[in-house]
Predict the structure of Peptidoglycan-associated lipoprotein.
Amino acid sequence: MLKQTLTAVAVAALLAACASTKPADSTNANAGANAGNGGAVAGGTAGQQIDPLKDPNNVLSKRSVFFGFDSSAVSNEYKPVVQAHAEYLKQNSNRKVQIQGNTDARGSREYNLALGQRRSEAVKQMMRVIGVPEAQLEAVSFGKEKPRATGNTDADFAANRRADVVYDGE
């Protein structure tokens, strides 16, 4: 009888010890794990949001509008990107962007600076039509001075024919 009583007391003590484990320990572990991402919980739990500009699943993470050879027309493929950034800027009137026009390496420096400016102005104008105030937008050209790809293939040239949307503070 004594053996059964001691076993029952031991089981009860073990169960009591399990029930008194502090849930704060798991909370502290999560706080440390989230410190590296600004406190945002991966997966976006209730009450916490991931920055849409940095969320790879959000169209706002796309920052480049690509152009055809010798063109400054925004193609239908990239209009949703421009639209999304315009809507974001309208909702966040404290944010500003610099639209940086770029070209491939072919052509003179002067020609490419002008083409890069036309590309950045095309994106800017589209945002203006959508309703973004002028004060939030700046269009500049880097011409061929800031290539994304340094080779001489068609793919390299295509990667450099772009306008990049760069937010203030980035």
